[in-house]
Amino acid sequence: MKPVAVMSVILATACLAVAQTTQQQQTPNKSSQSSAPGTSQSSTPPPPGKLPPQAKTQPEFDAYQAAIKNANDPAAMEKAADDFAAKFPDSELRVLLYRMAMHVEQSANNAEKMSDVAQKILKIDPDDPEALIGAAEVIAERTRDTDLDRDQRLAEAQKDSLRALQTIDTDAQIPAGTPQEKVDAYKGFLRSSAYSILGTIAFNEKNYVEAENQFRKSIDAYPAQPDPVVVLRLAIALDQQGKYADALKEANHAVELTQENTTAGTLARRERDRLQQLTGGSPAGGPAPAPKPPGGAM
């Protein structure tokens, strides 16, 4: 999955919204009381979707504030979310804390723990788009052809990704007052991630036409920050269809987006060199090797 910078911005804004909501619940709105009849208060309407989670009591909010202090430690953050959920089993803030824990695990490359936390979110809210995408991504990247339950796992990942695409507009929790450009970027990020997963599943099924379609949707959904891995996988899908000129264009793009000393960068340059040979370009040196299918190491 792409870097979580967009999600981090939304989560930070959500934290502020929780604080503001709690404060507003405890402080009478004097301005509304003093407004003249027939006048209206100007306010920014909330974006479409679910309302942001709210703390119902001050102790609940204080416990939430204490829990988020563990955001730099994956194990501590998950434990803090678990402890909060046990103490406040009906709190709307449980999902927000588990979502933080999921992103912390993702940043630490703890795929299995990320999946575990995503499942905890889905038990609370089965339509949470971030959790659906997080769970699906781990399955798509970690399932191998030799797994006995391969088909079942990939079908589950596909179902979760498609469900996320349906719930991004209806179930994403975005605080009122969030600038529209950040809302658009956040939703584009989620759509891009879901399409990327669907593309990876199609590629693993050797359905390269469908893989190309989904990878292009992924790139188009978040054009401001194309994922180099998705671009590389698109190049390989085109290569597998014999569309060598188009594949080379995407491989060159993947090279531009990656550093040479990274796994993705090495694979992108290898694919570019192969395609240059196939299209009459020059790196010399033996026959072009077959493209490597996309894997989690990218």
Any overview of this molecule?
This protein has a domain at 226-298. The radius of gyration is 22 Å and the shape is elongated. The protein has 298 residues and is an all-alpha fold. Helix 11 (228-240) packs antiparallel against helix 12 (244-257) and helix 11 (228-240) packs parallel to helix 13. It contains 13 helices and no strands. It has helices at 5-26, 30-34, 58-68, 74-87, 93-107, 111-124, 129-142, 150-171, 180-204, 208-221, 228-240, 244-257, 263-278.
Write the layout of secondary structure elements.
Elements: H1 5-26, H2 30-34, H3 58-68, H4 74-87, H5 93-107, H6 111-124, H7 129-142, H8 150-171, H9 180-204, H10 208-221, H11 228-240, H12 244-257, H13 263-278
Helix pairs in contact: 1-9, 3-4, 4-5, 5-6, 6-7, 7-8, 7-9, 8-9, 9-10, 10-11, 11-12, 11-13, 12-13
Please trace the helix and strand order, writing H or E for each element: HHHHHHHHHHHHH
- What level of helicity do the residues show? 55-70%
How would you characterize the largest beta sheet?
none
How many helix segments?
A: 13
Distance between the termini: 10 Å
What overall form do the CA principal axes indicate? elongated
Mean pLDDT: 85
Rg estimate, integer Å: 22 Å
Counting helices, strands and paired strands, the structural category is mainly alpha
How much of the residues is beta strand, in percent? under 5%
Low-confidence stretches: 26-43
Q: Write down how many β-strands occur, each being a DSSP E stretch of 2 or more residues.
A: 0
